[in-house]
Design goal:
The chain is mostly beta strands. The protein has two domains: 9-148, Elongation Factor Tu (Ef-tu), domain 3 (Beta Barrel); 153-295, Jelly Rolls, CATH 2.60.120. Helices cover 7% and strands 39% of the residues. It has helices at 82-94, 131-134, 252-255; strands spanning 9-13, 19-23, 32-34, 46-51, 60-66, 72-78, 102-107, 112-119, 124-125, 136-144, 150-160, 170-179, 188-191, 198-202, 221-223, 233-236, 244-246, 269-279, 286-295. The radius of gyration is 25 Å and the shape is globular.
């Protein structure tokens, strides 16, 4: 028995908040349809670094660079009159910018992911014939994805402190995290304000020897500095960021005493309970974690 084929849905969500369905069910809902294949949109562009020394046979792997993407695609813009064509063309053009990012969404039976795009060069519109008379024109979009990954919506989890620890007790709990993607992810936390509260967050090595401490850091945790009145903390464990920021713009990074999160969650990590705790806080405050979902392709790889 032949399997039923489901066509992928391709949409553009502009930085202005408009949505165009350019391929798949409902395509052309705003007069714009995909006219060609999309170049540079499948696997994330990667180049490897190869090192060699004098008299070495061949070379040694020295790492990899994840490059930005430069997707190119064309669309047909069609209307029922010259005036309508001009309006549809204008709305499409207004949805793109060099400074702001729009999203190219692709939805299949198993996933819905987006790639963030800005204009890399000006759009090229075929003007061989007057589109007001032809009521149709082809526009070629040359874009750039500074972040080359396709994303699904973040997964989230939270832990709510069940007991009063303002007297000095410690309340322990867990957050269940996972990473079903083929890319490493850096967890993002928000810890809830209470004056003097001290939260402890996990930073497990997950076997990574990137700091040559895979075993000693197998159950590593970091304790955040005591919170000030009204101070929520946003923690991005990505080691290329500031990592810990305050919602009231205090210089909380100075209170971290040089401590930093070191480890991402490896690809294809099954649901895992990681320990968290708080002291000096009443019942009801808590921790929320967001788990990004980056992929190297617009579908598959589960």
């Amino acid at each position: 028995m032949a399997r039923k084929r489901t066509e992928a849905l391709v949409e553009v969500e502009t930085f202005r908040g408009d949505t165009f369905t350019i391929s798949g069910p409902g395509q052309g809902d705003r007069g714009v349809e995909l006219a060609s294949k999309i170049e540079d949109f499948y696997d994330t562009p990667v180049s490897t670094i190869r090192n060699k020394h004098a008299f070495q046979k061949g070379s040694s792997y020295g790492g990899k660079r994840i490059e930005d993407r430069f997707p190119v695609f064309s669309v047909w813009i069609a209307g029922q009159s010259g005036e309508e064509w001009e309006e549809l063309d204008s709305e499409w053009a207004k949805g793109w910018d060099y400074d702001y990012e729009s999203k190219l969404w692709i939805e299949t039976d198993s996933s819905r992911r987006w790639l963030s795009l800005s204009l890399f060069e000006n759009p090229e519109v075929d003007m061989e014939y007057d589109p007001h008379g032809e009521l149709c024109a082809k526009a070629t979009m040359r874009t750039v994805a500074g972040d080359p990954f396709w994303y699904e919506e973040d997964a989230t989890a939270q832990w709510i402190n069940p007991i009063d620890t303002t007297g000095g007790a410690v309340s322990n709990g867990t957050l269940r995290v996972s990473n079903p993607t083929n890319q490493e992810i850096w967890l993002k936390y928000v810890v809830q304000a209470y004056p003097g509260a001290k939260y402890t967050l996990p930073d497990f090595s997950f076997g990574s020897d990137r700091k040559e401490m895979a075993v000693p850091h197998a159950a590593r945790t970091l304790t955040l500095p005591p919170l000030l009145a009204g101070e929520h903390l946003r923690v991005d464990t990505d080691d290329t960021t500031t990592q810990v920021e305050s919602n009231i713009d205090t210089q909380v990074y100075l209170r971290m005493a040089g401590l930093r999160f070191l480890y991402p969650i490896p690809p294809y990590t099954l649901p895992t309970d990681l320990p968290v705790s708080v002291t000096g806080a009443p019942a009801g405050v808590g921790i929320k974690v967001r788990m990004p979902r980056p992929w190297s392709r617009p579908w598959g790889l589960h």
